[in-house]
Write a structure and sequence with these properties.
It is built from nine helices and eight strands. It is an alpha/beta fold.
């Protein structure tokens, strides 16, 4: 069984660092799972776009693709543009079956990467004292994502035994300026900002500049192409790929190679496929 192509879909940006981060993540994915064909697509501002990648896959004779949105703030909801693009590709290339995974989301394992990035920033700024933290994200996310981001802030606060407030860069919630003011009202003066961003896009640059201008002692770099991010992408891909497997109404796996043969037990097919991508 040939594994579906993994298409990592990122929000585009005019900042070249966004495309560079996406390509670095693609390299990391190929290192971790060289047997999986991995592609990068952007929703806006960068090439290749998602429709271009799907057209390329169809032209190469690929029959299955699983799209993983590189979104760290939405836990369940995906950008509505995916639906239109996938529907268009299905009409234009009926032989290409496309599934969309749930976003990467604000998973707890990413706090480890956040810590590494912030420690590097604190070292570079020669900061020796810290009494407050801000977890800054691109957006407030969906309902589930917002709840998880708040939980990650509490976990980060507990881990470091420091107060931690959240901030978002798109105006959908408290800004980094409001979070800084909130911590200062508690008497905190040495405040660092952890950037819960995948790449250094315009929103990250705005919140970083604002935080530094208002006196934050350090602002971490985005999470980037860390191994933890790649592992979460693979986990989302595995579930989306499973959804592409053909099952009949009784839950039996149907092989396209032998449509008239007796159907295999669904558990055997599912377990074999899941084990290949979860190890």
């Amino acid at each position: 069984m040939t594994a579906p192509t993994l298409v990592m879909a990122a929000r585009g940006s005019r900042d070249h660092r966004v495309a560079r981060t996406a390509k670095a993540l693609q390299v990391e994915m190929r290192r971790v799972r060289p047997e999986v064909d991995t592609r990068i697509a952007f929703l806006d501002s960068c090439n290749p776009t998602l429709p271009q990648v799907l057209e390329q896959l169809a032209g190469e004779g690929r029959t299955e693709a699983a799209i993983v949105p590189l979104d760290l703030t939405h836990a369940t909801d995906v950008d509505p543009r995916f639906g239109g693009m996938v529907a268009h590709a299905s009409r234009q290339f009926p032989q290409l079956h496309v599934g969309v995974a749930r976003p990467v989301g604000p998973e707890a394992s990413l706090l480890t990467v956040l810590d590494k990035r912030l420690r590097s920033s604190l070292t570079a700024a020669r900061v020796l004292e810290l009494d407050g933290l801000i977890l800054s994200a691109a957006t407030a996310g969906d309902v589930r994502g917002a709840a998880l981001i708040a939980r990650r802030a509490r976990q980060w606060s507990t881990h470091h035994r420091l107060p931690c407030l959240t901030a978002v860069a798109d105006g959908s919630g408290p800004s980094v300026a409001q979070a800084l003011a909130g911590l200062r009202s508690q008497g905190r003066r040495h405040i660092a900002v952890g950037s819960f961003f995948l790449a250094a896009d315009e929103r990250w640059a705005v919140q970083a500049e604002q935080a530094r201008r208002l006196g934050a002692v350090a602002v971490s770099d985005p999470l980037g192409s860390a191994t933890e991010v790649a592992e979460l992408v693979l986990a989302r891909y595995a579930f989306a790929a499973m959804d592409l497997l053909p099952f009949d109404d009784e839950g039996n796996f149907q092989s396209d190679d032998a449509p008239d043969a007796a159907p295999a037990a669904p558990t055997a097919a599912a377990e074999q496929f899941a084990l290949a991508f979860s190890a």
